[in-house]
Design a protein that fits this description.
Structural class: alpha+beta
Strand order of the largest sheet: 1-4-6-5-7-8-9
Order of helices and strands: EEEEEHEHEHHEEHHEEEEEHEHEEEEEE
Radius of gyration: 23 Å
Largest sheet: 7 strands, mixed
Helix content: 10-25%
Strand content: 25-35%
C-alpha cells in the first residue's frame, strides 16, 4: 500500500490506493472500524478503491459542519464507513442532502444486534451494518460483506445521470471536463477590490471581443458583480495555485497578493498567465447561476508559462508527449 498526505478542506487526510479509483472515506479511528484495519484497508485498495481516513471530527467545534465541508470538497461522492460512535456527527451531516454527498454508508458496529438511532431510509442512502470482528480471526467475512455492498451500491463501472436524478452525479460528470483556473475581480460600490476563484470561463466572440464567466446566485459577491460596470478575468499559471486557494477562501483575499489597476480600476493580478479587462456587456440569468458576458477592452498575456489546470476536483499540470 502506498500512502500520501493530501489536504482536503484545509485538513490532512491519510490516503491509500490509486487517487483515480472510487473513494472510500473512513470516519473514526481505523482500529475502531475493523478487527484488523490494515488488512481491511489492503482489501479495499486491492479491490480498486481509494481509501481516505477522515480527520478526528470529535475534536472539532462543529463536527457535523466539518464533515459536510469535507464531503463537499471531495472530487466525487465517497462511500462512507463509520464506527457507531461517529454517528452523532455523521447522521446530521447526511440528513436532507445525504445522496448529494455520499453514495452509501457502512456502519461498523461492535454488537451484531446494533440498531442505528435513525431509520436508514431517512438518509436516502443505502446503509449496511457490519458487526466488527474483534477476535483473532482476520475478518475475511467482514471484508467480503463490505466489498460486496460497495460493488452493489458504488460500482466501479461508468455512472449515469438522468434528468431529475442525483445532481452530484451530474457534477462529477461535468468535473471530467478539464479547465483552466481564473480569478475574477471588480471594485465594489466603495471602490474596494473584490475577487474570487472561478473555472467557469470561456471565450464567446472575437468580433466583437466577448468573454464570459459564471457566478452562483448564492455567492456572497454576486450583487457586487451585478452592479459593477467593469470586471477583470485573470487566468492563473501553474505557479499560482496558492493564489487560487487564497481567492477561494473567506477573508481578505487580496492580502499578500500583488495587483495593479488599468483603465477601469478592476484589479489585475500581477504575473498572471493572462488578464482581460472588460466592460460588462450582458448579464444572463441561467438556473442557479448568472452568466456575466464582458466586452474586452484590454488584455495582456505571458507566452512562456504553463496554465494551472483543474480536473475532477483537483489541480493538475500539463503533460507533454
Amino acid at each position: 500500500m502506498t500512502q500520501s498526505p493530501p489536504r482536503i478542506g484545509g485538513q490532512d487526510v491519510e490516503s491509500w490506493g490509486d487517487p483515480e479509483d472510487p473513494i472510500v472515506l473512513l470516519i473514526g479511528l481505523p482500529q475502531a472500524l475493523f478487527g484488523d484495519w490494515r488488512q481491511s484497508v489492503r482489501a479495499l485498495t486491492e479491490a480498486g478503491r481509494h481509501v481516505l481516513i477522515a480527520p478526528a471530527f470529535d475534536r472539532a467545534d462543529d463536527p457535523t459542519g466539518e464533515l459536510r465541508r469535507l464531503l463537499t470538497d471531495l472530487p466525487s461522492r465517497p462511500a462512507l464507513i463509520c464506527a457507531e460512535a461517529s454517528l452523532p456527527a455523521v447522521i446530521p451531516a447526511l440528513q436532507v442532502t445525504g445522496a448529494a454527498l455520499a453514495s452509501c454508508l457502512v456502519i461498523s458496529a461492535s454488537d451484531p444486534a446494533f440498531q442505528p438511532p435513525l431509520d436508514p431510509a431517512a438518509l436516502d442512502l443505502p446503509v449496511q451494518i457490519v458487526a466488527r470482528d474483534d477476535g483473532a480471526d482476520p475478518g475475511e467475512a467482514e471484508n467480503a460483506l463490505v466489498l460486496g455492498f460497495l460493488e452493489r451500491q458504488a460500482p466501479r463501472e461508468a455512472l449515469h445521470y438522468m434528468a431529475g436524478s442525483d445532481p452530484r452525479t451530474l457534477r462529477d460528470a461535468l468535473g471530467c471536463f478539464a479547465t483552466g483556473v481564473t480569478v475574477v475581480t471588480t471594485l465594489d460600490e466603495a471602490g474596494q477590490p473584490v475577487g474570487l476563484t472561478a473555472n467557469s470561463f470561456s471565450s464567446v466572440s472575437l468580433d466583437p471581443p466577448l468573454i464570459l464567466f459564471c457566478l452562483a446566485r448564492s455567492s456572497a459577491n454576486v450583487e457586487r458583480f451585478r452592479q459593477a460596470a467593469h470586471f477583470a478575468i485573470n487566468v492563473l499559471h501553474i505557479g499560482q495555485q496558492p493564489t487560487s486557494g487564497a481567492f477561494a477562501r473567506a477573508g481578505d483575499r487580496f492580502q499578500d497578493v500583488a495587483w495593479e489597476a488599468w483603465d477601469t480600476g478592476a484589479p489585475i493580478l500581477s504575473g498572471a498567465l493572462a488578464s482581460f479587462e472588460c466592460a460588462t456587456d450582458q448579464i444572463v440569468e441561467a438556473g442557479d447561476h448568472l452568466v456575466f458576458i464582458g466586452r474586452v477592452t484590454r488584455a495582456r498575456f505571458e507566452p512562456r508559462r504553463d496554465p494551472l489546470l483543474y480536473f475532477r476536483g483537483k489541480y493538475r499540470r500539463l503533460h507533454f508527449s
